[in-house]
Amino acid sequence: MTLTVEQFPKDFLWGGAVAANQLEGAYNADGKGWSVQDVTPQGGFGPITDEPTEDNMKLVGIDFYNRYKEDIKLFAEMGFKTFRTSIAWSRIFPNGDEVEPNEAGLKFYDDLFDELLKYNIEPLVTLSHYETPLHLAKEYDGWVNRKMIGFYENYVRTVFTRYKGKVKYWLTFNEINSILHAPFMSGGIATAPEKLTQKDLYQAVHHELVASALATKIGHEIMPEAQIGCMVLAMPTYPLTPNPDDVIAVMEAERKNYFFSDVHVRGTYPGYMKRFFRENAIELDFGPEDEELLTNTVDFISFSYYMSSTETADESKREAGKGNILGGIPNPYLEASEWGWQIDPKGLRIVLNDFWDRYQKPLFIVENGLGANDELIIDENGNKTVNDDYRIDYLNDHLVQVGEALKDGVEVMGYTTWGCIDLVSASTAELKKRYGFIYVDRHDDGTGTLERYKKKSFSWYKEVIETNGTSL
Ligand code: BGP
């Protein structure tokens, strides 16, 4: 038995991640229909508008639709092995419920994938990244309606057939568990959250889980070599105190997330969710083939990781607007980003180990990064750049913990930083929350040249990839 640990495997997939709606722009070009994002202006999840308004930064994004060649060249310069993006569903099926796809939309992704492959960059494609066609939200109330499974099936069958041979790695739904917290953005559910019943919400969850399993089944049939994964928002949760009631509160909170990966990996509903449904009088409608369909399990688990959270059974400790995005209980041991997301590199090692211990399935970190209000400066050589040492520190500290998890024996396929080029934020719909190695000259008032500038972190990441992580 050898005890040598090679930290990052030779074929480790280093890269970056984005989502179509957050950077492509061209929201109505070449036959594209509107998606839920096109009516979500600055301010985030809502209120939504009747039609796209000028202050919606996603309408132009960073004009990736027209500039992707220039951007991919920069990704190649950093040495990317993979690039994660999504297909905007409403480019392919503008309303979502048509039978025939929009050829111009299909052509765009053909060209995009060809451009990546030219540089040996493996595309990693999210099928649905908060991009439900708006018509499906308005007409059907999104995933609450069982018909969505059929519309999604038609869409995924179309893109699998078209891009087989070009795309090997697929993700079914971005952060599928986020539907519990952002039903419109995540699930295209038009019913206002305060009017949405638990039954309808979990019915929508069920439809997505069935659709995800169906996509996995169809994907494997059409592309035997494909690797199809689920994608969840991961967040290790710590008890505020050693009080067993707090530990139980953690268990309950974590189950709301594990539920999604459990079904994807084990192919069946876990007992604790059946209990939750029973005790809350939620009776889900199962189609006759649903149980069988759910047994089409994923090849790997992918997840986003930005922060940990803290839980307690003592409701008086909850502080609205504080702690973390889903929490409300600040962890006194952690610092926070400018947007209040508490930074916890060790939490990434914990999450990796937890998933590995639970499932023994390969893991893929497909989002991690720091959103910051970067300042463009002119360096000593007269070049415009950003001295983003804080981003380098953040990413470095997290990658060191990935290295620790690898030493622990966890199998990790790859790591794609979120927003490898500046793009529009999902939660605030602003451009000033920047994540990239590449600065884009565009601002929330709509000004800017859209020029691209390399930040200091650009050469840092290039070296990390070049040395396969030994420079960390
Ligand atoms: C995840 C989403 C991404 C992304 C990221 C950063 O939840 O999958 O789409 O944007 O978070 O969040 P934000 O853009 O709100 O800073």
Describe this structure in words.
With 472 residues, the protein is α/β, with parallel strands linked by helices. The protein has a single domain, classed as TIM Barrel (Alpha-Beta Barrel). Helices cover 37% and strands 13% of the residues. It is built from 14 helices and 14 strands. The strands form four sheets. Strands 1-2-3-4-5-7-9-12 form an eight-stranded parallel β-barrel, surrounded by five helices. A two-stranded parallel ribbon has the order 6-8. Strands 10-11 form a two-stranded antiparallel ribbon. α2 runs parallel beside α4 and α6 packs parallel to α8. The longest helix is centred in the middle third of the chain and has 25 residues. The radius of gyration is 21 Å and the shape is globular. The mean pLDDT is 95. It binds 6-O-phosphono-beta-D-galactopyranose. 6-O-phosphono-beta-D-galactopyranose binds next to loops.
